[in-house]
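Feature request, filed as a ticket because there's no other form

It would be nice if the structure record came with a short human-readable summary line next to the tokens. Right now we just get the raw output. Example of a typical job, pasted below so the devs can see what we mean:
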Amino acid sequence: RTVEAATADRERIVEAATAERERIVEAATAERERTVEAATIEREHTQTLLASTVEAATAERERVVEATTVERERTVEAATADRERIVEAATAERERIVEAATAERERTVE
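Raw output as currently delivered:
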């Protein structure tokens, strides 16, 4: 009877230990799955943020390029207009000088 009781105790202990081990394995597996899921969500979030940042940086670069191009065109137009005004002024001044010299020469000839 003592052997039977000891055998029964041992079987109960083995069953309890086996059940505890299975519970621990199940809990660890569930925890690992939660960790993997959380890491996947975090990775997707990070990728979304990165894509958004790249998109914003690209848009900003395009805006800067456009603004720079517009400013350069304005500068070229202004410089061209300035040059035309200078050429017109110089031409008018030359014509005045030629007219004055011609008039002076005519007065001298008379």
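Something like this underneath would help us a lot:
The chain has a mean pLDDT of 96.
The chain is about 100% helix and 0% strand.
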